Amino acid sequence: MKNIYLNLSLLLALVALSVGISLFKPVNLGLDLKGGISMLLEPDMDYALTQEYERYAKDIERKLRDAGINVLDVTSDKSGIKVEVLDKKDIDSISQMVSKDFPRFEVVSREKGQVLIKLKDDEIKKLKDSIAGQTVEVLRRRIDELGVVQPVITKVSGDRVLVELPGVLDIDKAKSIIGKTALLELKLVVGSGPKEVLEQKLNKDTELLPSRNPQEWFLVEKLPVITGADLKTAYTSTDEFGAPAVTFELTDRGARAFGDATEKNIGRRLAIVLDKKVMSAPVIRSRITDRGQITGQFTPEEAKELAIVLRAGALPTNVKFLQETVVGPSLGRDAINQSIKAGIVGFILLVALLLGRYKVAGITANLAILLNALFLWAGLVLLGATLTLPGIAGILLNMGIAVDSNVLIFERVKEELRSGSSPKKAVELGYRRSLSVVWDTHITLLIAALILFQFGSGPVKGFATTLTIGSIASFVSNVYFTKFFLDVLTKIGALKI
């Protein structure tokens, strides 16, 4: 009786806890149940390679000139860094210098006084992997700032990234935040005015950028004073006229570089460039160190979105939207309604089968199935898991699998009763002799679910999650508590099987 009271107390405590969790905290619904946006993106690797070659072109040119090599010109594009030399004899010296000082690069062609320098194949692969990984992390931080519950951001089929946003239906807003490169650069201004006039002053150390005013262009130095990588945080604020603006704060390293540059260039204009467009170009009046402000006739919503993408960091390259899908919540309601109907029909059939086959013992099996469903649901809520349509399929499958343990145990108990054992002894022997099989079944199912979760993605993970939690809930309810129910029936002399 002491064990019965102890198990009854444990059962009531678990039921009360599970009911409380289920009632006071809703389960997270996935895209297929709640509706939302699904997007397939791809980082622009050609643009990323071009940027990487541009970053190194100036360093390579400086090294060549320091080594006394007569260089006519150094240019770069997505194919590599092209070096034109006056004397073809210098080509061997260039190869030696690249091999010694720039081990990530190699000379791949030498034609007509021109040398083509490229990243090695393994370095290109590392760069692409790094860009894909950075893209996923930046997108994750941006979406976290949006407050989307349980988004899916994962790499699929090579460099592509799948983004699912449950509950978000404004696709234009989502694209404006997710797809914005948000490359922030602060560059010293060489001149401003009409594009045609400035084009005459353009050289390899400067670039021509548009502004928010279509009539005004800016000629700026290519090398930025600081970039978005030096940002510590960004937040919405107002400018001196009370208009929406974005204030940013710099890291210690960025503050030192910014302070040195502004101190040396007092009186010059400093262009605040976002995604290759000049947002504003104030005059440097004094030394500035740890913070700055971006103005540009923003609306409050635009300022808020800009602060979000700056806080989350710049994407390492442009992204291309390959596919966009909006899933309406009505589709999710239909799926939920059909799943509920399937669950009810399945449960009624199980109840009828178990009662017809195992009589009073079948009641305990049905109670165990209900406990299994309750514990599984509470587990999903407690872990913050996302319920998807495949996840619901996993729940229904788990209900069917849960009966299997009871069938094994009940059949062993019936064998012991037929051999002449008392009801109490039959229950004890039946459990003892079937427990190893039940253990093997649950462990095998758990391992399979964990493998699916580790190597699957999207819907497969949802299915694996419910299967994992369900395997644990099944063992607790359909093995431990079914034994308790049978002990009670044996004690009161009501066991019929």
Automatic annotation (TrEMBL):
Give the way it sits in the membrane.
Multi-pass membrane protein
Tell me the ranges covered by the SecDF P1 head subdomain domain, including all copies: 207-316
The Protein translocase subunit SecDF P1 domain, residue ranges:
134-189
| Location relative to the cell | Cell inner membrane; Cell membrane
A GO cellular component annotation here is:
plasma membrane
Record keywords: Cell inner membrane, Cell membrane, Membrane, Protein transport, Translocation, Transmembrane, Transmembrane helix, Transport
Q: Residue limits of the Protein export membrane protein SecD/SecF C-terminal domain?
A: 318-486
Q: Which ranges does the record mark as transmembrane?
A: 339-356, 363-385, 391-413, 434-456, 462-481
Q: Which GO terms describe its biological process?
A: intracellular protein transmembrane transport; protein targeting; protein transport by the Sec complex
The answer on whether this UniProt entry bears the keyword Cell membrane reads: yes
Top-rank taxon of the source lineage equals Bacteria
**Cited Pfam families:** Sec_GG (PF07549), SecD_1st (PF21760), SecD_SecF_C (PF02355), SecDF_P1_head (PF22599)
**GO MF annotation: an example:** protein-transporting ATPase activity
Q: How does it assemble?
A: Forms a complex with SecF. Part of the essential Sec protein translocation apparatus which comprises SecA, SecYEG and auxiliary proteins SecDF. Other proteins may also be involved.
Q: What does this protein do?
A: Part of the Sec protein translocase complex. Interacts with the SecYEG preprotein conducting channel. SecDF uses the proton motive force (PMF) to complete protein translocation after the ATP-dependent function of SecA.
Q: Which PANTHER family match?
A: PROTEIN TRANSLOCASE SUBUNIT SECD, PROTEIN-EXPORT MEMBRANE PROTEIN SEC
Concerning its family, UniProt says: Belongs to the SecD/SecF family. SecD subfamily.
The identity of this protein, by name, is Protein translocase subunit SecD
Source species: Hydrogenobacter thermophilus (strain DSM 6534 / IAM 12695 / TK-6)
Query: Which gene does this sequence derive from?
Result: secD
